Amino acid sequence: MKILAVNAGSSSLKFQMYEMPEEKVLISGVFERIGGTDSFYTIKINGEKIEKKVTLKDHNDAVSCLIDELLENKIIDNLDEIKGVGHRLVHGGDIYNKSVVIDDEVIKNVESLIPLAPLHNPANLVGIKAFTKLVPNACQVAVFDTAFHQTMATDTYLYAVPYEWYTDYGVRKYGFHGTSHQYLSQRLESILGKKDIKVITCHLGNGGSISAVLNGKCVNTSMGFTPNAGLVMGSRCGDIDATIIPYIMKQTGKTIDEVVEDLNKKSGFLGITGISNDSRDVEQGINAGNPRCILAQKMYVNMITQYIASYYVFLGGCDAICFAGGIGENSINTRKEILDALKPLGIKIDLKANDVRGKETLITTKDSKIPCYVIPTDEEVMIARDTYSFIGD
Ligand code: ADP
């Protein structure tokens, strides 16, 4: 059975088509700069990568183009072969703790959550509308980035602010990257061969978050009301004192929107180095002796180790830790620095094993108190699995 996993952004649309339940990827790709004058798409099929320039005035055009490619490449003979389309949705608020089949009520609920995710939810909805229109017979499923974190306890997800901010305006910790953390914790269950485990999952990409997972349920996570909380990220600040915001507004005359933009787009690696949000550039800077790159990396690693150490105590111990995302999967040096800093927990890195990129690997020694792994994450397969679960054989 053919299932599409889709991630629609404001000007992009990523897709991966699976044969289920085998979980075989048949074709994948991304449409970029939708609505612009220079739109294009890249597809990967049978190990071959193809890039084409094309006019895409909106997401409907991208979906039409995707359907043409599926037909031309004989991935499908007709549209009815696409039994399900799973959509990544950034925000399910506290309405959704698992994936759901999309109907009018779901659309209404996702719309009602737009104030909580003003950039992402509208873009996700545009994707849903395009697929519902052009592939009307497929079962459309919503897979929420926040759902996995809904098991956090009230004393964990609340902020110590006036209680009415929560009851009247939904101010609380939601957490994001949930699909990735769920995938990683399930992989650790398989690797360790048991389900009743305490694990810490680190998703370190351009955005980054860490979760504490107890017996398969998320009990804490580093992102908060928005994805801007927690770790130092590519261009996001992570945890800061909220009072910095009015202070900077008064000092600079910047508007609230400008300061929020600074915190989202001009902070993190980019803010500290003044060079780049990309960890590869930071690494290059470090090798060239750039003091601000050295500083940014130190701050990045400090924040990660603080979260891991605090979740170790929060969980009352830890059976395994894993690293995923562009940095977690690929940056040998960053993993080494993190694991070295975690020595007080009895963690011992295996330097040879850690010399790895993008491959599931145990990177600690046999006598390390906590085994640590690199695990390439796979949010798309989770979307396909959830979508398939609603359709069955
Ligand atoms: P996103 O949050 O956008 O999904 P990714 O998970 O793709 O981000 O991660 C992007 C980050 O991964 C960037 O900082 C990039 O530098 C880093 N990265 C990717 N490949 C490598 C590599 N080979 N070595 C070090 N860092 C890498």
Task: Describe what this molecule looks like in 3D.
The protein has 393 residues and is α/β, with parallel strands linked by helices. The chain has 2 domains: 2-144, ATPase, nucleotide binding domain (Nucleotidyltransferase, domain 5, 2-Layer Sandwich), CATH 3.30.420.40; 192-379, Nucleotidyltransferase, domain 5. The chain has 15 helices and 14 strands. It has helices at residues 59-72, 104-112, 120-134, 154-157, 163-169, 178-192, 244-252, 256-265, 268-273, 279-287, 291-315, 325-330, 332-341, 351-354, 379-391, and strands at 2-8, 13-19, 24-32, 40-45, 48-53, 82-89, 100-101, 139-144, 198-204, 208-214, 217-221, 320-324, 361-362, 372-374. The strands form 2 sheets. It has an 8-stranded mixed β-sheet, sandwiched between helices. It has a 6-stranded mixed β-sheet with strand order 11-10-9-12-14-13, sandwiched between helices. Helix 10 (279-287) crosses helix 11. The chain is globular, with a radius of gyration of 21 Å. The model has no long low-confidence stretch (mean pLDDT 97). The chain binds adenosine-5'-diphosphate (ADP). Residues 205-207, 234, 278-280, 325-327, 330-331, 357 line the site of adenosine-5'-diphosphate (ADP).
